[in-house]
Design goal:
By secondary structure, the chain is mainly β. It contains no helices and six strands.
Length: 95
């Protein structure tokens, strides 16, 4: 049985009589601004760089990252689909 700590909903582990240790990790994700700070709706914002490191040991995260329900493949472009109160004539800043 998993004892104290943040168990993320796991309540029972079958260890088959072996000693097992768990590391609960998290990620720090960094998103840079696009090259061109002014973007129009339905236009690609190029130059966005997304990276993630594991907080436990500061190693690079090599999994997939999703931005606005779109898989981010690291190519540096991302299409702006909507902006809420903004319209296509207003410049925006991605932060």
């Amino acid at each position: 049985t998993v004892a104290a700590g943040n168990t993320e909903g796991i309540t029972d582990v079958n260890q088959n009589s072996k000693s097992v240790s768990f590391i609960w990790d998290s990620l720090t994700i960094t998103i840079s601004n696009p090259t061109d700070q002014r973007q129009d709706l339905n236009a690609n914002a190029s130059g966005i760089v997304v990276s993630a490191v594991r907080d436990y040991d500061s190693s690079a995260f090599d999994g997939s990252i999703t931005l606005n329900k779109t898989d981010y493949n690291g190519d540096g472009t991302h299409k702006i689909r909507s902006l809420g109160k903004y319209n296509s004539l207003d410049p925006i800043r991605l932060r």
